[in-house]
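User: Hi! I'm working on a homework problem where we have to compare a predicted structure to a textbook description. Could you give me the structure for the chain below?
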Amino acid sequence: MSVNLAALHEGTIESELFGHERGAFTGADRKRKGLLEAAEGGTVLLDEVGELPPRLQARLLEFLQSRTITPVGGSAAMRLNVRVIAATHRNLPSAVSRGDFREDLFHRLRVICIDLKPIALRWGELDEIVHSCLAEVCSAAGRTVLRISEEVASQLEKHDWPGNFRELRNVLEYAVHAGTGPEILASDLPEWFAPANGNQAKTACFSESPAQIPNHRRREVSIQPLNFKSSMDNFEKSFLSQGLRSNSGNISETARQIGMNKATLIRRIRYHSLQTILSRSVRPGSSDVVVPGEKKPESTMTCMDLSAGGMV
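Assistant: Happy to help. Predicted structure tokens:
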């Protein structure tokens, strides 16, 4: 059982969670079980727990410590056996430091913590994420799973995804409904979808001002871009280059070693122009080699039947 606390009115959250007795407030013409009581013997997901008002944070903490609840307007406590999972998009440690979230409740909730990274930090998994989401969208629209063109695959990779999974799903839903063919083309993408081009202004990053740096040290200081995407690109290029060299340019071995999907690795090699590192000593017809001057293969972000899977 789950409840989105951000979607509830502050005045009704307490009765929704803990229930109420008849006559507890205006309109309470009958006794009503709360979600915690209804989940007895099972699990309840408190989504967006960071939106819980301070007064109700205290009530939730009391329940987590004592495992008992008292319905609104009631006097008898009730012991429950319920497992609680809490989720939030907020930075709770920051909220605690600002005084917006109770520190004792934060520590009580943080027994086993799973930090789900945003898409921007999961480039190696982008193929699986896109195909899984696309399979769900196509299924909901009553269409067979579509292929993704090379141009669209490139645009999806270049985008920073500030809206994370919701933005990705919106882009794919628009494309699935806008397109009519078996393949998603760039013309099927929404007009508001514009991958970052990386041409943002660069700023020098100094721990000291230039005037404060001694002459003998100035040659050691290099100007670095204060841009997340550019920095990630530079790191990824260096990381992939090192991985390919350590495996003598073998894509399959490199993919296994670094834990990246092979199709994604091939595309990232082309993106960073690392083809010269690749081994030429492969079997004829192997897809492991993408050498300079060769005709680019069709999209490696191929269609996979993932209708049984779900979004990560």
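For your comparison, note the following. The mean pLDDT is 78. The chain has twelve helices and seven strands. Good luck with the assignment!
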